[in-house]
Amino acid sequence: MFINPYLFKQRPSEETCENKIFIRIQENFFKRAYRSWIPGNFKLLIGTIREIVRLRKMFQEHPVDLLHFNDTGCEPAVIAARLAGLKCIIGTFHVSPSCEKETSAWVHKLIEYFSVRSLHGGISVAQTVKEQWMERVGADGRFIDVIYNGIDAKKLDQAIREASTMADWPFERKSAESVVICTPARLHFSKGQNHLISVIPDLLAQFPQTLFVFVGEGPQRAEYESMVKQLNLSSSVFFMGFRKDVHSVMAYADIIVLPSTGLEALPYVIVEAMAMGKPVVSTRVGGIPEMITHEKSGYVLEPADSQALKNVLVSL
Known about the structure:
This protein is an alpha/beta fold.
C-alpha cells in the first residue's frame, strides 16, 4: 500500500498565510529601501565588511604559513587575513593605483589604506609603482621591495622563428622597403593608440610603404577602426584583435610603439621587444622610464605628445 504523506500534512490556516505574506512584504520593502535609499558607497562598505568577516573565519579555520596576493592594493581578503592572525602576508603590486572615478571614492581609499597596511611584506614591479602606492596610502614603503618583471627569453626564440610564416595574418609587406610598426596592447584609451593613429597620415605621406599593426582587443576598437576609415587608412592600418601568436607578430615588425597615457606599471611587451632587439618608442608613464633610457635603449616621450611621436618615427 502506498500512502501519500502530503495527505496528512496539516494545511496552513488563513492566519498563517496572511502572516507569511506580511513578512514577505516587509522583506521586499527593506530590500527595495536598501537598494534605493542607501548610497552606493555605503552598500559597498557593508558588503566589504561582510566579506572580511566571512574570509576571516575561513582563514582561522584553514590557517596557512604564508599567504601571497598576486595583485594587491585594494583587497578585503588581505585585511581578513591580518585579522585572522596570519603571520606572513605578502602582496605584489603589479599596477599603479587607479585614478578612475569609482576607485577614487572614500570607500575604495579606506579599503586601500587598511589593505596595504595589513601586509607584512610587499613586492613592486617598479620603483615608480611603489612610490605611487605609498603616496596613495601614506605609508613609508620600507616593507616593499622592488623586483622588476622578468621573461623567459628562450620562449621568444620560437616566436622569432615563426615570424616569417604569416599563416592567417591580414597584411604583408608591400615591398622590401616596407616598415612594419606594431602596437601590441589592449585597445583602451589609456594605451594611447589614438595618438598614433592621428599621425599616420603624415607618416604615410613621407613613407607610403609603411604598415601599422594593432594587436589586441578592447572597448575602443570600434572607435579606432572608425578613425582609420574616416582617414582613409584601411589599406595601411590593420587591427588583428587578440592573437596567441602576438610574439611572432612583434618579431616580424620593425618598430614597437606603446604610446600609453596612463595606468602602466612595467609592460611586458617592452621587455619582450627589447629582448628581440626591436627599437621601442613609448611614453613617460609608470615604470617605463626605468626600463628605457631615452635615445640610448629606446625612446621615452611625454604622454599624448603626437608631434614628438611623429618626429621619432620619422627619424627611425
